[in-house]
Design a protein that fits this description.
This protein is α+β, with helices and mostly antiparallel strands. It has a domain of 74 residues: Orthogonal Bundle (Arc Repressor Mutant, subunit A), CATH 1.10.10. The protein is built from four helices and three strands, in the order H-E-H-H-E-E-H. A three-stranded antiparallel sheet has the order 1-3-2. Strand 2 and strand 3 form a beta hairpin. The longest helix has 29 residues. It starts with a helix and ends in a 6-residue tail after the last helix.
Length: 111
């Protein structure tokens, strides 16, 4: 697995948990991500959604109200708790990285 793929995998988990605060079907999620400039392959998203559902972080429900059946996903209360922990970790990591980069830019050690 490439370094980029490894980083994207963790990021996509957080992104999916954030996006699923509202019910979405997989293809709509892909299009929403694409519209904001983040491309995700179907063969990456759907296995992730299955893993998140198996872990109890999201749930799904089939809808046949439109022209064809669609499986809608939505975050669970457990998923919200995990999402908040992941977002806290992500913010801390970003803060640390910015401090190190700033220190390097200024020729100092990170504080």
């Amino acid at each position: 697995m490439s370094i980029e793929a490894e980083m994207n995998r963790g990021f996509l988990q957080i992104l999916a948990l954030v996006a699923l605060e509202e019910s979405l079907y997989g293809y709509r999620m892909l299009k929403n991500f694409e519209e904001i400039g983040y491309t995700v392959e179907e063969n990456t998203l759907y296995p992730l959604l299955r893993r998140l559902e198996q872990a109890g972080l999201i749930n799904s429900k089939w809808s046949i109200s439109q022209d064809r059946p669609r499986k809608f996903y939505h975050i669970t209360p457990k998923g919200r708790k995990v999402r908040e922990k992941l977002l806290t970790i992500r913010r801390t990591q970003n803060m640390v990285l910015e401090k190190v980069l700033e220190a390097q830019k200024n020729g100092k050690k990170a504080e």
